[in-house]
Design a protein that fits this description.
Elements lengths: L1 H23 L6 H12 L4 H11 L3 E9 L6 E8 L5 E7 L5 E6 L3
Antiparallel strand pairs: 1-2, 2-3, 3-4
């Protein structure tokens, strides 16, 4: 009886995990490929242009760069995280169409 119960639970766990594993592999593009497609399709500034604009606003090293859709249908934005030599970090949000700086948010007190 104990072995039957364990086999049943194991089978249920495997069956429950299969859809999640299939979903995780459903999009084989990297974020860079996805971003490049979106930039090209919608005429947005490139990741490199976003990096340059953010570094002019706050010199340092870019630690994260992400193309994101803005809330409430406002279009696309680049979110660029930059850290300087003192370890201070900011997030610079850019309008992905125009390159305009939307927000600079400091991550220190």
């Amino acid at each position: 009886m104990k072995n039957t119960w364990i086999k049943t639970l194991s089978a249920l766990a495997i069956a429950a995990a299969i859809p999640f594993a299939a979903h995780a592999d459903s999009d084989h593009r990297s974020n860079g490929q996805r971003d490049a497609e979106i930039v090209k399709t919608f005429g947005l500034i490139s990741a490199e242009q976003a990096r340059e604009i953010a570094l002019k606003e706050f010199p340092g090293v870019v630690t994260e760069l992400e193309l994101d859709d803005r809330d409430y249908g406002k279009g696309w934005k680049w979110e660029v995280e930059v850290v300087n030599a003192d370890g201070k970090e900011v997030e610079v949000d850019l309008d992905a169409k125009t390159g305009k700086v939307l927000k600079v948010e400091k991550d220190w007190f």
